[in-house]
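Researcher: Here's a chain I'd like modeled. Treat it as a single chain, no partners, no ligands.
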Amino acid sequence: MQNNNVKSLDELFEDYATTPVPEHQTIGGVGIGMINGGLAFAVPGLITGLELGTALGFEQSLYAFLVGGLLLSVLGFVTGLVGMHNRFASCMTMKFVFGRYGSNLISLLFVVALLGWYGVNIDLFSDVSQQLSLRLFDASPSIMTLEIILGVVITLTTIWGFKLIEKVANLFVPLLALVVVYMLVQSLNFQADGAVAAPVQHSLGFGEAVSIVVGSFIVSVVLMPDFTRFAKNTRDTAVASFLPFLGLSSFVYIASALAGLAVSDSDVLTVMLTLGLGGVAFFLLIVSSWVTNVVNLYSVGLGLNAINTRLREWKIIVVAGVLGTLFASFNLLDRFTDFLFGLSVVFTPVAAIYVVDFFVIRKQRRYQLDELHQSPAMNWPALMAWGLGIGASLLSNQGHIWLTGIEACDALLVTTPAYWLLRQIMPSPAFKHPT
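Model: Modeled as a single isolated chain. Structure tokens:
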């Protein structure tokens, strides 16, 4: 009797973490795009727009938002196609590309990065909530209490899987969009009332600003197969990528940049309170932190499940939720810029490698589960190309090489031909399959 109960619970939480998504479970591109769209409305997105706007001025920051968003959308579309064609989560795809054991290293780094994002969002939530509560209600709840409460809510939500995440995103993203629109209107009215515009600091170069925009969503781009494996067709995959990365995120960045310039401040709480968004700011903070971290924790569960397929995803999510709450104590928010740069350096080459592997090396032949038993433990060409891509980003950042001036783009330009060339020099028989 007990076994039957466990079986029904596992079936209830089945989310195809290690198997292809059945065709009858696919959905449209708008629903998928709204998931990453929810990330665009999170507080880190507002902070990015505020800081770039005050650092570059409106015109230059606008170009940076659009160029960065276009790069993210194109790369997200291509990585998303890999997920749509194969119906596998990104961490399972990496097993085919990097080898059974080589992929575990990549997956583990993804898990650490996502837990880092999880900690950043909970840290933001607790810090700003405490300040907001003190200003509005003259009460100051403890940071630990706020972090534990949000951690429990996020974990319980994530356990129910992709379908619930889609419903939550579709429900709240339009509401969050209205909040940002209201902030934009208030900003324009604030300037119309004769407020002095913020001085432009010019503390960032244009290429660096584009890199920051790319870095803010590079993990989502590389993990696009987690979501586009549910996409019906190519058009839905395109919508799922361009809607959040070029459309919604650019809108949020532009609105928050205007708000920062109007108020002459880059602190998100100060800007919201100055524009009369006290209670609304609290709502935006809670909902955006919830939706963002549900997506982060969902991908953490997929990553850990790909490393150890014997454990059930919903059980892994519970453990990951505890770990993510602990990550909030690391205060990554104080090193936010370094965190974003590290993500772009490590993960941009990964996207290039598995795109080349599927579209060029395999010529779009689908991955099959039985191939995992034949594939090498370590795909050295992939790991070597990954290292070359990381090296290119670091050298570009230090000014030792110059290709485009944008570290993420330099990594792509080096990794893509490097992996193809290394595969020609070091072919793997296990990857040769009949057409």
